[in-house]
């Protein structure tokens, strides 16, 4: 699901870049001088073109929205019924008011706290930028533009660099100083308000019966456990001091080659389903083309009645390097035999889990939520690093199993090494970003750098496209590749869960955006316009401060264009999801080769990758804070951008995304985004401080001298106060963003969530605080256990679909987490009433049974024959709940595919 979300985000970004090529030609309309009025035409043309693109996308969205519910409102009819949202009216405009009136906070109930806090962060930025936009436009625009001796025109008139260097004009720097102080205090006030609001929301969320009654809320993952404590009884005794003690312990074990065998069987099952389905589809095609009668040819084997010997699928076995040599065999017969062999091998190797040596980590299910939280925050072992890493609210579907057995010292070394490597890659990306920044300002370079004079001979439209389109595309490609690398670094660091990997990725991406996409690009893009002046300065460095003061503010035009692109084309593309729409139908047409694939194409719903999405938004925050005083025009564009982002992400978080419990952190991404925003504020203050200290005034005798030392001193004072605020704020809240305060526990039964049925979001079991709550949750779960009736997700029919193979059965009294709807028996599946079965946190190679082979039922009897032959090999198989329609295409009508669970 997260992968789907990442692909969707990248596709949306590429759609947004469509406007860049046409927007870029605006740069060719102005003078080659970066201080010229070309900045005005660049911004206005960018605005006009992206507004037109956005209008077209929004119009298309309004028209297509009711026609493609799978793309534009899957959350209204897919997934667990208790998490679905009320669909909006299908009329063209009748949906707008119901969407506007729907409270954003309702996102918590359908998609969890992470999704809501992302929307809430955008709302916070609207509140921050609204007053800043009005205040800076009123105060700073006249100060910068009115009666100054600067040489800039167009929108560059409205920047810090337009203030002349005369002694009188230099006194105007008091205005940006005042503005930065007011802006800083306003940002700190709003940030504090939203941080405290988040803490309350998170506390309400974690103590609510809906969340607190789950086993996930009481499960702790501990890594780095020394051998003398790697025993279930020893761990229970160690944590017996916690309220209620430990109910269950699952030890991580060294399974040696067992996971590889398990993965090999899964691949073989996939191949068998694909091969058998291909045979059946081939028979349908031959009958349709009258190449064979519907009764088939005379043959003993059912397949031979419709396929010749040459048409039967084959595969190579024993080939070297995957393709050299090997023997050709019948694919179906070989796969059946291979799966039979792997089933027997897994059964013989599984045996008793205690046959495998425990390895470094364990999952502990506490009897009480408060006991789990106390164990998380308590120092356990008296030696360094041992049992030091503890992760609250562990979920089996989020575990990265290979990382659990890592030695704590090795994990520390890996963490340090891959963080160092992260900064190395940030450095490697520097010249690439620098090249991109230089290309964005070829107009200035070709007139000032002799060996680039030929660039000025390029036709203006072509040069404009190169300047605007190429840098944006290069940045997009670089920003797509880097998260892949940085996510790998986070995973290789030894983090044990996917949520921890995404949190680490968010931090790494924030550093990258701050250093490369903002600081470096600002300096290179601004100074490159005055590169001919840099060369003489190398022999006389005293002129560098004046150059920095003059040219750094000039990069604001690129960032204004970037914000316009993201706000208009980006938001419009996010709503339209043209890439998602196209990919959906391409998959349905080309990849719907098996019932399982068809089901997932029609039922899977994407979700965002927070590790990349949050940094993308905080980058815009950093850029806006950085130029809020230097180029206040950006504040208005950013304010509108965040309004459009709010509309976009409120809609997608409500009707499009489907956040899974395994990926929920209860808002921790938000707190890291706050830190990233504060870093952006520090950078803005640092830049203005440097500009004040480097500001030069031209004296009457022709000499130059520093003119704004007092302003620079006051900026240092402001930076100290900002750091103090940041420290005091986070010190005052302490562990509140992650802790469970005892004072809230009595209020749990009266939480605002108590009226809601216990759902699957954030849960893998149900065990309420009281018998009444527990029975209420059970009745609600039983009443909503089957799929709803709608065209895209048909209800499970009363007959024709075997509940054992695909339909979701009613939740049992144990709220058991196992196969999530497929009641195939697993090891230790007779769990007690604690909301988790005995095999919940066993490795899938120990826990999961052979997934049922699912074949499309056909009128020729081929699927029935294939199912029987598979069962002769001891392979669980079925052809129920699926078949062919009148167009000979595969269809399904089950709530969950056989052998899978509803996540």
Give the topology:
Blueprint: H1 2-16, H2 18-24, H3 38-64, H4 69-72, H5 96-101, H6 107-145, H7 167-170, H8 174-207, H9 209-212, E1 219-223, H10 232-238, E2 246-253, H11 258-288, E3 314-317, E4 327-330, H12 331-350, E5 358-366, H13 369-377, E6 389-392, H14 408-439, H15 442-448, H16 460-492, H17 498-527, H18 531-537, H19 544-551, H20 556-576, H21 578-591, H22 595-603, H23 610-627, H24 633-656, H25 668-694, E7 696-698, E8 704-706, H26 709-733, H27 771-783, H28 844-847, E9 853-854, H29 862-872, E10 877-878, E11 882-884, E12 890-892
Parallel strand pairs: 9-10
Antiparallel strand pairs: 1-5, 1-6, 2-5, 3-4, 7-8, 11-12
Helix pairs in contact: 1-20, 2-3, 2-16, 3-20, 6-8, 6-24, 6-25, 8-25, 8-26, 11-12, 14-16, 14-17, 16-17, 17-23, 17-25, 19-25, 20-24, 21-22, 23-25, 25-26
Describe the structure.
The protein has 903 residues and is mainly α. It has a domain at 2-174 and 183-208 and 417-733. The protein contains 29 helices and 12 strands. A 4-stranded antiparallel sheet has the order 2-5-1-6, covered by helices on one side. A two-stranded antiparallel ribbon has the order 3-4. Strands 7-8 form a two-stranded antiparallel sheet. Helix 6 (107-145) packs parallel to helix 25. The protein starts with a helix and ends in an 11-residue tail after the last strand.
Please report the number of helical segments.
29
Shape: globular
Provide the residue-averaged pLDDT. 79
| Rg from Cα | 31 Å
| Main β-sheet, spatial strand arrangement | 2-5-1-6
Name the poorly predicted regions.
1-37, 747-834
């Amino acid at each position: 699901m997260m992968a789907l979300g990442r692909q969707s985000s990248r596709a949306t970004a590429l759609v947004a870049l469509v406007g860049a090529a046409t927007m870029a030609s605006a740069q060719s309309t102005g003078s080659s001088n970066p201080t010229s009025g070309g900045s005005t035409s660049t911004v206005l043309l960018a605005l006009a073109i992206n507004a037109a693109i956005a209008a077209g996308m929004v119009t298309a969205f309004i028209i297509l929205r009711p026609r493609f519910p799978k793309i534009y409102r899957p959350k209204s009819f897919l997934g667990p019924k208790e998490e679905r949202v009320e669909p909006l009216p299908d009329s063209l405009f009748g949906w707008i008011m119901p969407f506007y009136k729907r409270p954003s906070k309702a996102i918590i109930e359908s998609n969890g706290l992470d999704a809501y806090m992302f929307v809430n962060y955008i709302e916070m930025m609207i509140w921050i930028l609204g007053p800043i936009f009005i205040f800076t436009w009123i105060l700073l625009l006249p100060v910068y533009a009115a009666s100054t001796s600067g040489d800039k025109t167009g929108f560059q008139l409205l920047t810090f660099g337009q203030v002349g260097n005369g002694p009188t004009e230099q006194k105007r720097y008091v205005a940006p100083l005042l503005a930065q102080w007011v802006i800083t205090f306003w940002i700190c006030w709003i940030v504090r308000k939203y941080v405290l609001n988040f803490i309350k929301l998170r506390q309400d969320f974690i103590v609510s019966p809906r969340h607190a009654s789950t086993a996930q809320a009481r499960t702790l993952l501990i890594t780095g456990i020394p051998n003398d404590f790697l025993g279930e009884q020893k761990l229970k005794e160690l944590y017996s001091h916690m309220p209620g003690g430990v109910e269950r312990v699952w030890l991580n074990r060294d399974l040696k080659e067992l996971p590889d065998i398990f993965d090999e069987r899964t691949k073989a099952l996939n191949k068998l389903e694909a091969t058998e389905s291909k045979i059946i589809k081939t028979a349908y095609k031959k009958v349709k083309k009258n190449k064979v009668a519907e009764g088939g040819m005379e043959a003993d084997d059912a397949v031979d009645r419709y396929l010749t010997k040459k048409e039967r699928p084959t595969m190579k076995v024993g080939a070297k390097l995957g393709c050299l040599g090997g023997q050709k065999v019948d694919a179906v017969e070989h796969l059946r035999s291979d799966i039979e062999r792997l089933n027997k091998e897994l059964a013989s190797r599984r045996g008793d889990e205690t046959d495998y040596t425990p390895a470094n980590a364990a999952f502990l299910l506490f009897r009480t939520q408060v006991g789990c939280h106390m164990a998380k925050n308590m120092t356990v072992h008296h030696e360094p690093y041992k049992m030091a890493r503890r992760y609250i609210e562990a979920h089996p579907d989020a575990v990265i199993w290979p990382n659990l057995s890592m030695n704590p010292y090795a994990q520390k070394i890996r963490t340090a090494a891959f963080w160092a490597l992260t900064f190395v890659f940030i450095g490697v990306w520097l010249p690439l970003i620098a090249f991109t920044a230089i290309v964005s300002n070829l107009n200035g370079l070709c007139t000032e750098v002799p060996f680039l004079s030929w660039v000025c001979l390029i036709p203006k439209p072509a040069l404009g496209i190169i300047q605007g389109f190429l840098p944006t595309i290069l940045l997009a490609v670089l920003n797509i590749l880097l998260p892949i690398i940085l996510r790998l670094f986070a995973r290789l660091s030894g983090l044990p869960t996917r949520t921890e990997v995404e949190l680490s990725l968010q931090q790494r991406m924030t550093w990258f955006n701050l250093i490369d996409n903002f600081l470096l690009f600002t300096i290179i893009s601004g100074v490159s316009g005055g590169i001919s002046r840099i060369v003489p300065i190398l022999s006389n460095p005293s002129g560098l401060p004046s150059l920095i003061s003059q040219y750094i503010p000039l990069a604001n035009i690129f960032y204004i264009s970037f914000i316009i692109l993201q706000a208009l084309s980006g938001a419009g593309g996010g709503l339209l999801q043209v890439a998602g729409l196209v990919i959906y139908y391409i998959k349905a047409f080309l990849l719907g080769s098996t019932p399982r694939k068809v089901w997932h194409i029609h039922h899977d719903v994407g979700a965002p990758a927070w590790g990349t999405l949050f940094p993308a938004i905080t980058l815009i925050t950093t850029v806006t804070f950085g130029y809020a005083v230097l180029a206040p025009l950006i504040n208005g564009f950013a304010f509108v951008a965040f309004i459009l982002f709010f509309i976009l992400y409120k809609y997608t978080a409500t009707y499009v995304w489907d956040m899974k419990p395994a990926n929920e952190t209860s808002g921790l991404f938000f707190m890291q985004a706050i830190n990233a925003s504060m870093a952006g504020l520090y950078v803005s203050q640092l830049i203005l401080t440097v500009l004040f200290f480097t500001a030069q005034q031209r004296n009457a005798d022709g000499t130059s001298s520093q003119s704004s030392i007092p302003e620079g001193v006051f900026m240092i004072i402001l930076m100290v106060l900002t750091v103090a605020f940041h420290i005091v704020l986070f010190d005052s809240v302490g562990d509140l963003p992650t802790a469970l305060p005892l004072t809230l526990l009595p209020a749990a039964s009266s939480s605002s969530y108590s009226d809601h049925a216990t759902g699957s979001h954030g849960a893998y079991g149900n065990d309420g605080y009281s018998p009444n709550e527990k029975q209420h949750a059970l009745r609600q779960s039983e009443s909503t256990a089957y799929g709803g009736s709608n065209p895209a997700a048909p209800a499970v029919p009363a007959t024709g679909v075997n509940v054992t193979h695909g339909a979701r059965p009613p939740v049992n009294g144990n709220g058991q987490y196992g196969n999530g709807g497929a009641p195939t028996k697993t090891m230790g599946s007779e769990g007690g009433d604690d909301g988790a079965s005995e095999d919940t946190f066993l490795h899938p190679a120990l826990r999961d049974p052979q997934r049922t082979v699912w074949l499309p039922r056909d009128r020729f009897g081929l699927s029935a024959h294939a199912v029987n032959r598979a069962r002769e090999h001891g392979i669980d198989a079925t052809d129920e709940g699926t078949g062919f329609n009148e167009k000979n295409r595969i269809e399904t009508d089950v709530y969950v595919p056989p052998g899978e669970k509803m996540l």
